[in-house]
Amino acid sequence: MKLYGSTTSPFVRRIRLCLTGKAYEFVNMDIFSGSGRELLRAKNPALKVPMLEDDGQMIFDSRVIHRYLQDKFNQAPLSWDEENLLTLIDAANDAFVQRMMLMRSGIAHDADKLIFTLQDERFSTTLSTLENSVQHGGFEQWNYPSMCLYCLLDWVIFRELYSFEEYPNLHAFWHAHQNTTNVAETDPRQ
Ligand SMILES: N[C@@H](CCC(=O)N[C@@H](CS)C(=O)NCC(=O)O)C(=O)O
Questions:
Q1: Is any ligand 1 atom within 6 A of the Cβ of residue 63?
Q2: What is the pTM of this model?
Q3: Residues of the chain predicted below pLDDT 50
Q4: CATH architecture, range 2-72
Q5: Which of 14, 53, 68, 125 would be a feasible disulfide site paired with 2, CB 3.0-4.6 Å?
């Protein structure tokens, strides 16, 4: 198995955490320039990471990769509530990635502009729901949804997009997992 991605991507990191203890090759690439970009173009028309290659089969998108790995390793499927939590995590993560891209494009935050209004509301609705779920025990086990939540929080903190002071349960969850297996080894700061 080959996992294509970058060390900074939260979507790649969740799959690396999920593959802890499994034999695979990690192809670390710069997706925005040079040979990494060429490889990305050759492998995935969506031009996003992660992607997984196994026995000649390419799989795009972390969510589908996770389903593929579940099948391959005969793991139980996620419950519908867990799927919904993943959708919220993905919605927040996509919005934070968009926010970073806007900043990198020199487009300043303007609360009156539609894109920012929608993003700001989505941050608030998804994060407050996730905060509530952590508070009520929804992320007590270190399973795939917890890995995805951790990768979201840690990436947002790493990129200095948000500090989570308003969400004490999310912050405590992030803090509690600093030493969880393979978390330090997959830290985007290294
Ligand atoms: N839904 C995708 C999202 C993946 C994604 O957004 N990856 C980012 C890196 S964090 C990417 O490849 N961005 C490149 C781009 O948008 O041009 C997944 O879960 O795999």
A1: yes
A2: 0.97
A3: none
A4: 3-Layer(aba) Sandwich (3.40)
A5: 53
